[in-house]
Specification:
alpha+beta; Chemotaxis protein chec; 28% strand
């Protein structure tokens, strides 16, 4: 399957997964924080894996990256990335204003980002599960504040081989006048994207 040439139905299904997952995540975050958190309409796409590094600004760009493993009939890794310039604003929405300490995150900040990663992953996996009738099980998230190249290298080292393509969900968190852009990457193992599309009934 050539994922660079998705048909209209396939793109619509991916967008619907993004919409359902974002709605689930907004509800879960609002419940956790006990105040209204909105999420913008996500932009969902599939791109060759090497372009993931380009999207994030190149291998030496500093980011916060939280990642976990998903087991099931279509195994994958999930990576949630916040650009360096968005981290403090994102943490401001979650836990109040924070400052990065040198090249690291304090324990509360790290915990907050990992919890959001857990919520996002669970929300999108629930959407996938409902639409495909497949079961997914996610691991506890890990977190790194490092260069993009190093984080992606860690993901590959920890979780093994991935396919040539990544499912990308650009995510906007909104609270009143605060807006923060994040990126959620579903990095499937070889064959997993084909399995998902087969279960979704949109094989080209």
């Amino acid at each position: 399957m050539d994922f660079q040439n998705l048909n209209t139905l396939q793109r619509d299904v991916l967008k619907e997964i993004g919409n359902i997952g974002s709605g689930n995540a907004a509800t879960a975050l609002s419940t956790m924080l006990n105040r209204k958190i909105n999420m913008g309409v996500p932009n969902v796409s599939i791109l060759p894996f090497p372009q993931v590094i380009e999207i994030l600004g190149g291998p030496e760009t500093l980011v916060a990256g939280s990642y976990l493993q998903v087991e099931g009939e279509a195994p994958m890794s999930i990576l949630f990335v916040l650009p360096e310039e968005s981290i403090n604003l994102f943490l401001g929405i979650l836990i109040g204003e924070r400052e990065l300490e040198g090249k690291g995150l304090d324990e509360l900040s790290a915990s907050a980002i990992k919890e959001v990663t857990n919520i996002l992953a669970g929300s999108y996996l629930t959407a996938l599960s409902v639409l495909t009738n497949m079961d997914f099980s996610q691991s506890v998230p890990s977190l790194a504040y490092d260069m993009v190249g190093a984080i992606l290298g860690n993901v590959l080292q920890l979780y093994g081989e991935i396919s040539d393509y990544a499912l990308i969900i650009d995510t906007m968190f909104i609270e009143e006048d605060k807006k923060v852009q994040g990126h959620l990457f579903l990095l499937p193992e070889p064959g997993s994207l084909e399995t998902l599309f087969e279960q979704l009934g949109v094989v080209s």
